[in-house]
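User: I'm preparing a small set of examples for a lab meeting where we compare how different chains pack in three dimensions. I only have the primary sequence for this one, and I'd like the structure in token form so I can line it up with the others. Please keep the answer compact; I'll paste it straight into my notes.
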Amino acid sequence: MTTPSIGPVELLVVKFPGNQFKGEIAPALGDLIDSGTIRIIDLIFAIKDEQGEFDMVEIKDLGDAEIAAFAPIFTDGHELLSEDDIQQVAAMMEPNSAAAVMLFENTWATRFRDSLTNANAELVYNIRIPQGVIQQLIEEHEQAQQEAAPTLA
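Assistant: Understood. Below is the structure token output for the 153-residue chain.
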């Protein structure tokens, strides 16, 4: 039996204050799945009540609107998130909050990874830069350009 080729995998935790899941993110996830950009491997919803009691919720246990939004995008899960993963999420959450915990494959990167392998190349370093850092760098660059621009007198 051969192991299927899988692209880079990421864990994403999205918090919803006030224990309010919003189905509004499901269409955006659906677009990413439909375009072949990502594949959801595992998806769990976590809830911490006002007293700090933690519980996990499966899609089938959500409200009707949330089930209608999320069920179509998560059809072939593998349940790879461990109890330890879930406990780490629980520790991150404040009372009266909810979170969507998603393990997903960056399927867009599989072809590129395979081309590197076929070329006998080796990935040496890969890191995700937070958007806030990139935004700050862009603003600093724009400010430096404005300061360096000649002024007309």
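A couple of notes for your slides: The radius of gyration is 20 Å. The chain has one domain: 9-122.

User: Perfect, thanks.
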